[in-house]
Input
Amino acid sequence: MAKKCVICGKGSMMVQKRKKLRGKYNPTIKKRKHPNLQWVRIPLDIKKKAYKKFAGKRILACAKCIKAIGKRK
Output
């Protein structure tokens, strides 16, 4: 299972946090952040052009894309 949004292609990224240690910065904290992916079934009668090719399918989408699916024009 890929950790990437099928619609927008959002994937994981490295995030660096600056940790202050006794007056000096110790840039040792590196983490990989993953997008908030969820399984969603795209309705058959979707009107938006970006989602037409996924109509009727169950896909992994990020929360931002899921929110955009629910919005009406």
Q: What stands out?
A: The longest helix spans residues 63-70. The first strand starts at residue 13 and ends at 21. The mean pLDDT is 84. Residues 42 and 53 are 10 Å apart (CA to CA).
